[in-house]
Design a protein that fits this description.
The chain is an alpha/beta fold and 127 residues long. It has 5 helices and 6 strands. It has a single domain, classed as Rossmann fold, CATH 3.40.50.
Length: 127
């Protein structure tokens, strides 16, 4: 995997408080999602945002990170096609749509669906 740009964090996950944020958008990409999935601090933030019923958006491989928190059970989600079995094994219903909204969860399949994904996030933040 070729790395892209590097940025300096202004805040580390261990310092972040879910109550300080209105929403959380998880990036796609296999490596990103795998790193977030195994990070206990990231899991704490994801769970906190979800427990507060704030918009929680995940695109491409990012729904992997939702599995580890247990929040996908009983939810209808979309994601990159290869995640279908993982999501179903975790108790989610998988659909093949550009964007899927289930309560506060907003999921999308891949970068080709970004327009619908952004529109769904905008709608959630506007309501």
């Amino acid at each position: 995997m070729d790395k892209g740009d590097t940025f300096t964090a202004e805040l580390f996950a261990k310092e972040a408080k879910p109550e300080d944020y209105d929403a959380l958008v998880l990036p796609g990409g296999t490596v990103n999602a795998d790193g977030i999935r195994g990070n206990k601090e990231a899991q704490r933030i994801i769970k906190g945002i979800n427990d507060a019923d704030k918009p929680l958006a995940a695109i491409c491989h990012a729904p992997w990170a939702l599995i580890n928190t247990g929040i996908v059970k009983g939810k209808t989600l979309t994601a990159y096609q290869s995640l279908q079995t993982d999501l179903e094994n975790a108790g989610a219903k998988f659909v093949d749509k550009t964007v899927q909204v289930d309560g506060n969860l907003i999921t999308s399949r891949n970068p080709d669906d970004i327009k619908d994904f952004v529109e769904a996030i905008d709608k959630a933040l506007s309501s």
